[in-house]
Design brief:
Layout: H1 7-12, H2 41-53, H3 77-82, E1 92-94, E2 97-99, E3 106-108, E4 118-129, E5 133-140
Antiparallel strand pairs: 1-4, 2-3, 4-5
Length: about 140
Amino acid sequence: EWLNNDPEFFHNAFEKIGLSFEYVALRDIKEGEEVFMDYGPEWEAAWEEHVQNWKPLAGSEDYLHSTQIDEPFLRTQAEQTANPYPSTVQTMCLASYTTDEETGDYVFTPMLRETTYRWYCDVIERHGSEEEGYTYDVDLRI
């Protein structure tokens, strides 16, 4: 189903979509033996065509990965007015809230477990220092 999406869909996806393969051995593989893969002539021809016709997405020359930002803190919304992050960098916060079933209010939940679920968020205020570490007041975009 995901093969029907255009490249822009994958470029904008914040939860990256993984591609997986299932391999089936046609014979027993000995321990320590190297395994080689032959994708076949059709795959090689398709790859060569892709390489010849590939063009980067519009705006990709401005791409900046978050690890390339050399700052020990997150910028607040006020700071981003004068010095915004590139469009390729989004601020996301780990979800540490649940919804109270009776009131519907959001309730803080301590993060005692590992999670990868994140919300887009805006940093309102930063507290602390590089030496002691930072904490933030944020608006979650729920």
